[in-house]
Amino acid sequence: MGLSKFLVDHMLGRMCRWLRIMGFDSKYVSSGYDDQQVIEECRKLGAILITRDRELASRYFPSILISSTDLNTQLRQFLSIYPFDRSLLLTRCTECNGVLEQKERGEIENTLQYQTQKSYDIFYRCISCGRTYWKGPHYRNIIKRIEVILGSDENPR
Prior knowledge:
Elements: E1 5-8, H1 13-21, E2 25-28, H2 35-45, E3 48-51, H3 54-59, E4 63-65, H4 71-79, E5 100-104, H5 105-108, H6 114-119, E6 122-126, E7 132-133, H7 137-150
């Protein structure tokens, strides 16, 4: 069985970004989409809808109705249905949902600031939009937040 695809509606933009960080294939639809367009896009993609809109969730199956406005609670609700696979961490672009490819320093030289180039050996580049990522100090914060979400750390921030 392949990995699930998700379509995240405009009410859950921050959640969508974190789903991507955790490696979930998550397309975001803006507020410019009406309910019928959201449903049609879900059908076209074969995606599971993630929404806070009760009426919309009742019109499309499969869907996940997110009840909370708190990001950590939203992610916990989602992860209770679709467990986190650590091997997928940082495999998707947070901006466009594209797949990230590992790159070595020599492959991305002159595309980043000098200090970043010299401080890290491994980088990740989005095959869709070209954005580059690396495991800098922010990586520890990402791991810490995921630990909090998963309940393996008592510190909320």
